[in-house]
């Protein structure tokens, strides 16, 4: 198995610990969204998605601090789908600390994460390791980030998992295991398997908007 090269990304710019974009709210009733990009993305990628999902919500969009051959990520991996779990733990805590900093700096409520692929996986790790940081999470094409996460409690935390029926990166059994881990911790998990692969489709958008409206995850 090939180990993929991973080196720390350039140090964060600005006063907060992650390079990021912040879009202030125009609707104070809308919960802030934490946008977490996939491998090779950056802090700009999911801003349009966030605007579409919850117009008027504050958007907080950090860039992953790992660089894999120049591609930003949120934690190291040893190969596709094989994670460096020690690094997952370290990076999940770093990101959780950044969210605390950003909440203070920008006066935000606990955000709802919207994570795609690697961004969904770090959001899942944060739910396991720092259950108080997120008020909910939409995990798009997520897989298990920690084989044996510590016991934790996520009582009633709304979590939407959207998996692709023909996803070549995330086996169905792996996504189901993540849903089970979250359910065991008390999260209110809705796991849907949509037609399609690892990429997002308009069906994902509809499902996320519907979930935000139904669960009240978008209401602060
Ligand atoms: C990961 O590395 O987090 C997953 O394999 C998804 C990806 O980013 O390709």
UniProtKB/TrEMBL annotation:
The entry's keywords: Hydrolase
Matches recorded under SUPFAM superfamilies: alpha/beta-Hydrolases
InterPro entries named in the record: AB_hydrolase_fold (IPR029058), LYPA1-2/EST-like (IPR050565), PLipase/COase/thioEstase (IPR003140)
A Pfam family this chain is assigned to: Abhydrolase_2
Residues of the Phospholipase/carboxylesterase/thioesterase domain: 24-213
Gene Ontology molecular-function annotations: hydrolase activity
Entry's family note: Belongs to the AB hydrolase superfamily. AB hydrolase 2 family.
PANTHER family found in the cross-reference section: LYSOPHOSPHOLIPASE-LIKE PROTEIN 1, LYSOPHOSPHOLIPASE-RELATED
Protein name: Hydrolase
């Amino acid at each position: 198995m090939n180990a993929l090269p991973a080196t720390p990304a350039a140090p964060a710019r600005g006063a907060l610990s992650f390079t990021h974009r912040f879009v202030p709210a125009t609707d104070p009733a809308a919960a802030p969204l934490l946008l977490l990009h996939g491998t090779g993305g950056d802090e700009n990628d999911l801003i349009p998605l966030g605007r579409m999902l919850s117009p008027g919500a504050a958007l907080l969009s950090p860039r992953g601090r790992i660089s894999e051959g120049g591609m930003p990520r949120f934690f190291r991996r040893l190969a596709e789908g094989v994670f460096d779990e020690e690094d997952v733990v370290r990076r999940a805590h770093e990101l959780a600390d950044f969210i605390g900093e950003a909440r203070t700096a920008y006066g935000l409520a606990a955000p709802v994460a919207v994570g795609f692929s690697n961004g969904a996986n770090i959001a899942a790790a944060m739910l396991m390791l720092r259950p108080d940081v997120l008020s909910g999470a939409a995990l798009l094409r997520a897989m298990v980030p920690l084989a044996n996460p510590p016991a934790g409690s996520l009582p009633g935390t709304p979590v939407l998992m959207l998996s692709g029926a023909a996803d070549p990166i995330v086996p169905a059994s792996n996504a189901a295991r993540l849903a089970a881990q979250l359910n065991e911790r008390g999260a209110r998990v809705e796991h849907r398997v949509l037609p399609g692969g690892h990429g997002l489709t308009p069906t994902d958008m509809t499902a996320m908007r519907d979930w935000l409206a139904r669960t009240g995850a978008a209401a602060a």
